[in-house]
Specification:
430 residues; alpha/beta; Gyrase A, domain 2; 3 domains; five-stranded antiparallel sheet; 15 helices
């Protein structure tokens, strides 16, 4: 429910059109896939002028008869129309029930259904693109191809079991494991992409660290384009971490402005400094900020030491003033005050983490359930290779397990499909 220009009230099921005709009137006949302008009688002599769309099974989202009313988007009006349809015999849909019916009627695979939710919840261009690729059926096609290859290998095994007098088990095994090697590479590739695609879903976490008063808060404000962090000449102003987010090239970058690291006596500031140190450990990238108008202090050296094992970009701030600090390795010289060099920092963060790791033209998986089943499939593949010298029936059983593990991603995991394909593809002249 919500206020807007248009609200859609949707029904699915064999009684949809029958119930719709009880409340809707228009000139001429209601035809499938034709928008009809008409009225809904909402009681008390009042009528709502609206559009009706009718989709006849199986040519609809759910695969059933469907009716959609496009009415004006007031909350009360929508509730009124909904209540009216319930009075005439409709029942309230459960959460996700339209997509569930689409899956049950073969209009949608599980991965495509999950991708629709991903589209709705996407918070960045890259996250949306990942969901659109899966919703478009690209993942399903790849999984079905892998299952098809496995089915052929199961059929090959069945042939050796049916004709034990024929001495082709050795050559059959070679062909089977050659095919399985390709399956393994595909699954490994999916999981490598999934690992890299964590940044697509969660974004890149960047910790801004440095000694007090080097310009960390000014840098954060320049990076996000807003004055969110307090900037003063007083040391220790930032006593807790401040988190802000931007979008860069379709990727979320989550900036964490931390408390200045030094030997502090104030207990509250000490807690903030400990959080800063933990941020270094958990961040994908660390921006180590130095003051270009002074030489390295002991606390600067300590911070550089803390960040040596992290992906670190050294930021030399205050290049609008006379420089005193010696040249640093792989530094970016900026002025947070004048916002000079800020875009270069964003590009460097992106290149360090994303670089060539994520190919946005490929299908990459960001759904945890799908990753879980791919990991399961990967383990089964390794089991099969360990069992290479075992009997054919054991190998066949493991391949069937692999087939089902992959099928859990799309919802296609019935063993009957394997049996059907065995008989249709491997006729041995019986």
């Amino acid at each position: 429910m919500g206020r807007g220009a248009i609200s859609i009230v949707r029904m699915s099921g064999q009684e949809s059109l029958k119930i719709a005709k009880k409340v809707f009137s228009c000139q001429g006949q209601i035809e499938p896939r034709v928008l009809k302008l008409g009225y809904i009688d909402i009681g008390g002599g009042a009528r709502e002028k609206c559009l009706l769309a009718y989709f006849k099974a199986p040519f609809s989202y759910t695969g059933e008869d469907m009716v959609e009313f496009q009415i004006h988007g007031g909350t009360h009006l929508t509730q009124k129309v909904l209540s009216l349809l319930l009075e005439k015999g409709a029942v309230m849909a459960g959460g996700g029930e339209f997509s569930k019916r689409a899956f049950e009627n073969g209009k949608l695979s599980l991965d495509e259904a999950e991708a629709i939710v991903g589209e709705i919840n996407a918070e960045s261009e890259s996250e949306l693109r990942a969901s659109l690729n899966v919703a478009d059926g690209k993942l399903k096609k790849k999984i079905i191809k892998l299952q098809s290859d496995l089915t052929e290998e199961i059929a090959r095994i069945e042939a050796t079991l049916d004709y034990p007098e024929e001495d082709f088990e050795k050559s059959a095994k070679e062909a089977i494991f050659s095919s399985l090697e390709n399956v393994r590479k595909e699954i490994d590739g999916f999981l490598v992409q999934a690992k890299n695609a964590r940044f697509v879903k969660d974004g890149i976490f960047v910790a801004i660290v440095g000694a007090p008063n080097v310009g960390k808060s000014s840098l954060l404000n320049a990076l996000i384009g807003e004055d969110k962090a307090i900037v003063t000449d007083i040391e220790g102003t930032t006593r807790d971490i401040i988190e802000e987010r931007i979008l860069y090239k379709g990727i979320k970058i989550n900036f964490i402005d931390t408390a200045g690291i030094r030997d502090a006596k104030d207990k509250v500031e000490q807690i903030g400094i400990e959080k800063s140190k933990k941020s270094i450990e958990s961040a994908d990238v660390v921006l180590c900020v130095l003051d270009g108008t002074r030489k390295l202090k002991e606390e600067d050296k300590q911070i550089l030491s803390l960040t040596k094992n992290a992906k670190t970009i050294v930021i030399v701030n205050k290049n609008d003033e006379k420089r005193v600090l010696e040249k640093q390795e792989n530094e970016i010289s900026i002025s947070a005050k004048d916002e000079k060099g800020i875009e270069l920092i964003k590009e460097q963060i992106y290149s360090l983490v994303i670089g060539e790791q994520v190919d946005f033209g490929k299908v990459f998986i960001i759904n945890e359930r799908q990753i879980e089943h791919l990991t399961e499939a990967q383990k089964i593949v390794e089991e099969i290779f360990v069992a290479k010298d075992e009997s054919m029936d054991i190998i066949a059983m493991l391949i069937k397990n692999l087939w089902n593990a992959l099928g859990k991603i799309t919802g296609q995991c019935e063993n009957e499909a394997i049996i059907d394909l065995i008989f249709s593809k491997f006729c041995l002249g019986k």
